[in-house]
Write a structure and sequence with these properties.
545 residues; alpha+beta; 8 helices; 22% helix
Length: 545
Amino acid sequence: MEVSGQRTGKQRHRWTCTLAGISLCILLAGTVVVVRLVIARAEPILRARVIETLSNRFQSRVELTSLDVSVMRGLEVSGSGLKIYGDADPNPYQPGAQALISLQEFHFHTGIRNLFRPTVKIDTVYVKGMELNIPPRQDRREFTKKMRSQTSKISVIVGQFVCEDTKLLINTLNPDKPPLEFDISNLKMKDIGRGQPLRFEATLVNPKPVGEIQSTGLFGPWHEDDPRETPVQGDYSFNNADLGTLKGIGGMLSSTGKYEGTLSSIVVDGTTDTPDFRIATSGHAMPLHTEFHAIVDGTSGDTHLKPVKATLLHSSFTARGSVMRLRGGRGHDIELDVVVDHAQIEDLLRLGVRTEPPVMDGPVKMETKLSLAPGDGDVVERLKLAGTFHVFGGHFSNAKVQGRLDALSSRTLGKPKAKQENGEADVPVDLGGVFGLKDGLLSFSLLHFLIPGTHVDMTGDYSLDGRTFDFRGTARLDAKLSQMTTGWRSILLKPVDRFFSKDGAGTEVPVRVTGTESEPHFGLDFGHKDEHKPFEKDFDSAAKR
């Protein structure tokens, strides 16, 4: 009996385990069925929620190519091909209509219980390939008025968006003016909600010069009546921008600053540093530092500089003007008024001219209008200047050239035998005029040259490569020709003094300066007639002596 009871107990135990196993299997099967039912229900429910929310919010057609849901680890949702058309297009339902917002891919995670609540709350939505297409101003007003008239409840709330490869396009009513485009490689937006500013962190791709701009700040709240009045503020940094991507110049630029205002009028204050700034025509690297105050229209890309303060080596200057975006996508036109008030001529020559050392040193002042036309060509070829300059008490770096000027000064003062004592300073050179730069060639409509005893007014051309040096004009000398030499030459020249004197005193003769920047040649210029060559040679020889 005892043995029989033990067998009965074991059989019961086996049946109990079997029943438990069957129950567990049934439970697992039921769970699988429930999960599948949840997934089956989640996709259309969530898809409907997303489309309904966006359609009501934007009063527009909404497309969603795919939406995949998984509940293995909470509610995981991914989708692609989301497009919101808005009503900026006369017929947003026609083929080829432009979407207001489009997303290539997106995904997010939340709790399953969230799905069945009146309002679905999502912490983070990850987006790739977003394009925001802002309509022209007039269409924006009509669109936002219609949106505000809707009172539908928003049923999905997002804590933050993390976006990769975003593009912002701002359209205009002008068919000849393409939309303003901003490429944003990374964008994070927080505190998203109506009536409050959103916080953002962004990395913008700058095409020229190539580099990445890091920016953090606040945007909004969105001004629906006129988006141009939407507030914006933040800080930015722009590091290791290669100026070599702009043909004709070079150097690595870094910039930091802050901005504040509205989308149509953003006040920007910042600095730039380029320790190795250079122009291709010279190739000389020089430190360039700027501080700027600018007003930027974020809806058009137009910028007004008020002003830029720059320091180049030992020289400083200021610039005011505008950078205007041209129609047809042809780039930007830069127009500046530049004032050089504390500068050294050797710094400017070293920057723009290949000859080393610079041909002259001394303080200089200059005012010029600067124009840089759009295009992909060399910066120097596109650069135009028109202005005036004045060098005070300059000296030529070439001892041979300066020596000739010293000797010329003595002779034109009527002291041909005078010689400078050792240690005596070179005669100062006063140089000024009216100039223009175009296609890399400096043209002087007036060039004023003054040393003691000599006053020369000339016109001519000078190339930035130092190879073209050709000036012609008139020299007014304090002494008469016969007083500029001694001995028999002085006697021979006395009869011709009256032909070259002005008002009975001094001498006035046509002159020409040719050669190169480092080896200029001075001489008389009588139209290159053969009969005047001996006299011209004699004058040049006298100057050399």
